[in-house]
Write a structure and sequence with these properties.
Length: 160
C-alpha cells in the first residue's frame, strides 16, 4: 500500500492506515476513545506515550529497538522496528522524494552527542545514507572536530 503512495491517493491511504491503526493498536485506540475523536480527525500520538507504553500494532518481535537520547535521569522513549529493510526503504524513499538519488549527494553529519548511542535511529539513518551516498567526503564529524573547509566546500559546491 505505502510503496505506491502518491499525491492522488494520499488521503485514501491515510484514512485506510488510520482505520487499521485505530482497530489494531490498543494504545492508539484507547487514546482516540479518551479524546472522543471521530474517524475524520487523525491526531498524532504524543511522544510521551512511547516512554510509558508499548506502542505496537499486532504481535511481533522487534528486529531492533531504537531509544531517544533523553536527559539524565529521564525515561527514554522506545521505537520498535519489526523490519529494518522496510524501515530503511521508507527513509530512503523519503530522502529521494525531496532530494533525488542519494548517490548524487555528499552527506556530512555533525551529531556529536548521538554517536555514542548505538540505539539512536537518527545515527542509524544518517549512517545508512552516508554509506549509500558513495562519496568519499561523506561521513561524521566527531566531538570537537571542526569542519574541514576544503572538504565542506567540495561537498557543497559539487552537490545540487
Amino acid at each position: 500500500m505505502l510503496a505506491n503512495l502518491n499525491p492522488a491517493n494520499f488521503d485514501a491511504t491515510a484514512r485506510a492506515v488510520f482505520a487499521y491503526q485505530s482497530a489494531h493498536n490498543p494504545v492508539f485506540s484507547q487514546y482516540l476513545k479518551l479524546l472522543g475523536r471521530s474517524k475524520i480527525q487523525i491526531p498524532f500520538l504524543p511522544i510521551s506515550f512511547f516512554k510509558t507504553h508499548l506502542v505496537q500494532t499486532g504481535i511481533w518481535k522487534a528486529e531492533t529497538e531504537f531509544t531517544s537520547s533523553g536527559t539524565t535521569g529521564q525515561i527514554t522513549s522506545k521505537h520498535l522496528v519489526a523490519d529494518l529493510t522496510l524501515y530503511e526503504e521508507s527513509f530512503e524513499k523519503g530522502f529521494e522524494q525531496f532530494y533525488g538519488n542519494i548517490e548524487d549527494w555528499t552527506i556530512l553529519a555533525l551529531l556529536p552527542s548521538y554517536l555514542e548511542r548505538d540505539t539512536s535511529s537518527l545515527v542509524y539513518m544518517v549512517n545508512s545514507l552516508v554509506k549509500k551516498s558513495n562519496h568519499p567526503q561523506s561521513g561524521f564529524y566527531l566531538d570537537g572536530q571542526q569542519p574541514d573547509r576544503p572538504r565542506l566546500c567540495s561537498a557543497v559546491c559539487n552537490s545540487h
